[in-house]
Amino acid sequence: MGIEEKIKEIEEEIQKTPYNKATSHHIGKLKAKISQLKEEQIKRSSGGTKGEGFHIKKSGDATCVLVGFPSVGKSTLLNELTNAESKVGAYQFTTLEIIPGVMEYNNAQIQIFDVPGIITGAAGGKGRGKEILSVARTADLIIIVLDTLNPQHLDVILRELHNVGVRPNQTKPDVKIKKTRKGGVNVSSTVPLTNLDEKTIRSIINEYGIHNADLLFRDDVTMDQLIDVIEANKSYVPMMILLNKVDLVDEAYLKELKKYIPEFTPISANEKLNIDGLKEEIYNNLDLVRVYLKPQGRHADMEDPLVITKGSTVIDVCGKLHREFVKNFRHAKIWGTSVKFPGQKVGPDHVLDDEDVLRVILKK
Q: Which residues does 202 contact at the CB level (< 8 Å), separation at least 6?
């Protein structure tokens, strides 16, 4: 029996099994088996098919990837957003390799990749799909591009991303698993677990050959989320949804569509509609922070900020500047909203706000 047949057989068993407290541990075990089989299927489908054009070099302050079906207008959109020259054609599979471009906005250099259009079954290797989707795993933002007349493609794209290990707009579950040499599986939690009982947890974790471990749950997770934590190979990436070619429909159509896709950005790459608004949304979704550096005895350079990600600390900035700044760091002074008063002295772990002015003092 092949992998697909095994997966289908187990899925049918799950559907036939009534879900209740008595059967949850069995269903959890079956879901773990399916996840392992899908991972094996992906590995087999990608064996020896590295291809060309899919090895990307990331640069700039952040990386976005345009994901969508063929002919939704990704190439046209890339050309409008960046300095790229992606081939544009009104037929499928125009883009046969990954095309990078750079969007400059608010002093940030944002790299955007146009990847070949995905198809159903992409995560399983069809149409070099796994290679295409793997680009999304390492991106800072996934931009799903839908044709306004084919919004149903969203479900397919989300399923394919999920199957390749991407969890768009999700945060990594706070579950710690510490393997031990003996003592069995011990479960503790800081929150009520409404989706899992201890028998189900043990059933799932045993399926991965773990029979002795301490588990600490700080989130109320589902079976699927626990499986993700155990496999530890999932990517949690922010996502936004674009509806392209809105010039072909009216406001009533878009209003009706919001019942099924509550959050989307309407654009027309071909007619250049809402492109400036889209640039701002992309920037905001990336959670970037601008920091102005103030050398000793001089004014801060307010024209050329250092762009970092939200949550970055003073020592993170030092690391971007030069390793000597980390090695010889003494303290720093901040002017801006992250401190209580101008010129406040801070340590290496101080988190910076947007438009803070930073002066780093090094050991002599």
A: 25, 185, 187
Each residue's pLDDT tens digit, 43-65:
665 554 444 434 566 778 899 99
Task: Return d(Cα 306, Cα 309) in angstroms, integer.
Answer: 10
**DSSP secondary structure code for residue 364 in this structure:** -
Averaged pLDDT of the chain? 86
Terminal CA-CA length for the chain: 70
Phi, psi of 351 (to 5 degrees): -85, 130
Of 311, 314, 326, 316, nearest in space to 350 by CA? 314
pTM of the predicted structure, to 2 decimals: 0.82
DSSP state of 174: -
d(CA 222, CA 77): 37
Q: Which two structure tokens, joined as six digits, stand for 14?
A: 């799950």
Q: Which helix (H) or strand (E) holds 145?
A: strand 141-147
Closest CA to 46 of 156, 117, 110, 131: 131
* Amino acid at the residue 76: T
* Cα 95–chain centre separation: 23
Q: What are phi and psi of 75, to 5 degrees?
A: -65, -45
Q: How far apart are alpha carbons 143 and 146 in whole angstroms?
A: 10
- Residue 48: exposure state from Cβ atoms within 10 A (0-12, 13-18, ≥19): exposed
CB atoms within 10 A of CB 120: 15
